[in-house]
Every structure is written in C-alpha cells, then in structure tokens.
Design goal:
Rossmann fold, six-stranded parallel β-sheet, 13 helices, pyruvate-formate lyase- activating enzyme, 3 domains, 439 residues
Amino acid sequence: MRFHLLSLGCPKNTVESEGLTGLLHRAGYEPTDDPQEADILIVNTCGFIDSARAESVAALRELGETKGPDQYLVAAGCMAERYGTEMARMVPSLDGIIGTRRWREIVALVEGLLADHRPGALHQLPLPGPRHPPVHPLARQCAAVATAYVKIAEGCDAPCAFCAIPQIKGAFRSKPKKAILTEIRELAEQGIKEIILIAQDTTSYGRDWKQKHALASLVRDILTAVPALPWLRIMYTYPQHVSSQLIEVMASNHQVCHYLDLPLQHAHPEVLRRMNRPHDMEHVRSLIKRLRKAMPDIALRTSFIVGYPEETKDEFQTLLEFMNETAFDRVGVFTYSREQGTKAAELREQLPQPVKEDRYQRAMALQQRISLRKNRQFVGQELQVLVEGVGDDISVGRSYRDAPEVDGMVLIHGELPTNEFASVRITEALEYDLVGRIE
C-alpha cells in the first residue's frame, strides 16, 4: 500500500507531515511522490487565512478530480480541524477527515477507509475532549535535508483578536522535555545539522507547568544532549517572555544561532490594544537593545500586520517610523485577513483591500531599503553557509541570519556538496540575498 502526502502551510504543519509519514511508514505504508501510484491521498491543510484555505481546497479538489475508484482522499491538518464535516461540502470527493488534535491516529483512519471499501463514505475521527492525550516521542521521516523543525508545544493561549489558532489548536500544552530530547537525538543521528524550535509561542514553554525560564533550561539540555549539533535556531518568541536567562544562554553558546524571531504585529499602542496584544513598545525597544548588546551580530526578525480594522494613517505612519528606527534584519508584512469567529472580524471599520495593499507595498519598500543596507555590511566578510541546493554552477544556502523559506539566501559561485557547511566570502549584497565565493 502506498500513500501520497502534500504538506501545505507553516513549519508546524511540516512537523506534523513528517510525523504522519513516520507513522504510516512504520505501519507498512510506502510514500510516493506520484499521486497516481498512491492508494491513499493526503493533504495536510492550512486553515489560517483566506489564501491558505483557498490553496488547501484547490489542492484537495485537484486530487479529487483525478483520483481513481480505488483511491481514498483524506483532508488532514488545520482546515480539517476547523471545519470538520463541512470539508465534504467544499470537496465532495473527500473520503476522510483528521484534524490537528488527532493526527497521531492517521493509521486507524486509513485502515478504517481500506476496510470499509466505500469511497465517498466520509470517515472522521471524533474531536478529543478538553483533555489531550500525552505527547510521546515520535519517529519522524524527514526529507533528505539538513534542517528539521521540532515542535516544543501544541496549542495557544494568547487572546489575539485577529487569530483563530486557539480555536483550531486548543489550549497551550508544552511537550515533555524527555520527548523533545529523544526526538532531537534521533534527528541528529539521521544527520540533521540544524534544529529549529517552534511553537505558537516558544517562550511560553513550561508556563502551563508553572515553570519560569523553561525555554532557557530546555536549550541548555538540548546542547548537552547533542553537543555536536552545529545550529540550534529559535522561532516564534513572544517579546514579553524573552528572559535574561534566554539571552544569556544564546549569547554564551556558539551552537545557538544569533537569530531571534519576535513577531510584534504592529508598533502603535492603540492598534496593539485593538489586537489584544502587548502594547508596551518601550519594553520592546529595551529588549532589542539588550539583545544587540549581548549579541552584536544578532539577526532579528519580526512580522507586522497592515490594514488592521480602524488603522489610521497616523497609526500606520508610526509603524513605518518604528521600522526605520529599529531596522530589523528581516521583516514579514501581511495584510489583515478577516477571520470568522475572531473579535477583530466584528470591528466595524474594516479597511478596503486597496488601502491594505497600498500599505503593504509601502512597508515592504521601506524594509527592502533597510535589508539592502544591512546586507551591505557583510560584503568582504566570511560566513558559514549551510548549502541546500546546486544548479548551473551556482550553489544556494543559508547563513545563521536566514531561517528556511522566510528569509534570504546566500548564492555561491560554483557547485558545492549539499547539506554541508561551507565558508563563503561575501562579494555582493542584494535586497534580500547575499552573493559570495569560496576562498
């Protein structure tokens, strides 16, 4: 029996997709890249915003239109969790549904489909109750790459007015440290050279257990467990929860990339209040100074939402001024998406799409200038680069300043071994990327 799995959405979905693959493989199912060869077709969906949902539905419909009479189509992931049996109305050819809170039971769902022999008879595992089963170590089957994401928690307790994630993922639940360390050891044994810690908020790790500074302690234990790991990267950190202990452990251990992701969402206190986000911008400014003092070479990333309901011209201008003042190395800008069931969707003054798009373009143009200025500082310097691809006498990789998929690349003259590190002399700076050569 073979299965074809298409993974959409964020790195957290990537981890679950690797888990799905690992579970199915251990149960005797073989993965295939060709949907026509598969008995089971799975789309790990994203249900976060309109564009992601549209992509998920389109992918399911495309597979549904071409599947044969003995093939079964399954919707997994966030959109399946959020909409449940409504998915069958969007995709009539759907055979199975499994959400984010039950994905570890994929084998039971697949075996139920195969035993039933009724394509089109919708199978869905019931939603779990308020108590979630414990998270145990899970063997993952990763692609032939050198980087792996590791989720250290599930769910989210943040009350952000624009976000539906708590409805989809449930309450915040830290993964036991033993399970995390076991997973990372197994990944290191597979040859993984970069581990990226992720969660909806990594800095909340351990807070559901009433533990302070648990993330800093976890990082120390990871470095002890896999002392030969070259890179450990931390994503999705909440600015109000970045502790002095975390800064110290990052600054004092060379394996921890001097890189931090601080999703702020906006810079004007009133917009942040409407977002139900922390709005003490002086604390944010102080944190950025502390990080840069402890690690002068640190690369800081953030994300902003423009066109939020009731955002005025002056509030947007404050955001631009803050971007110019703080000069983040990396910035992701997103136009506000009105999500059903969120408090922000009920706000009366929803801005027109052309206004959102104009503000997006202006913010991105500013960040391009900042990014180019930052990149030019590295011309003439030497950086360690993890090579990820080769073609036409050009190798492509990332430095410690670049997280996969969301940041820039380093383009290197010549063909180098993939999934290995190379020392690269930077010769040119582009708006997002760097160009270099081997010494």
